[in-house]
Prior knowledge:
0% of the residues lie in helices and 29% in strands. By secondary structure, the chain is mainly beta. The strands form four sheets. It has a four-stranded antiparallel sheet, with no helix packed on it.
Amino acid sequence: SNSHTKNEKDSWDFDIYYSELKDSKYQEPIRLDVNINSEYFECDPFIAPDESYLIFSSSRPGGFGEGDLYICFKDDCGNWEKPINMGDKINTEYHEFCPQVTKDGKFLFYK
């Protein structure tokens, strides 16, 4: 099978983590919470320079195709809110991934 979940004990872990830079050293990676990571495939995160939003690819159910782009925002407490599917203007029946937003915030590039 080509599908992997985070419960499998192998080298495939398609979840999103973060690592904070402290004293010129990256800290131990921490898995983002269940709002972001599911039992399905999550990958290719793009985080806004001000960390106000995160775009990533996921194969979770309810999308338009094999893998869709989702966006989520931080709430007033700094926690990630529930991801929102970016819709049928971006997502297709295929797998969308590798999101990148230009520095001016005007354009989204993806594959």
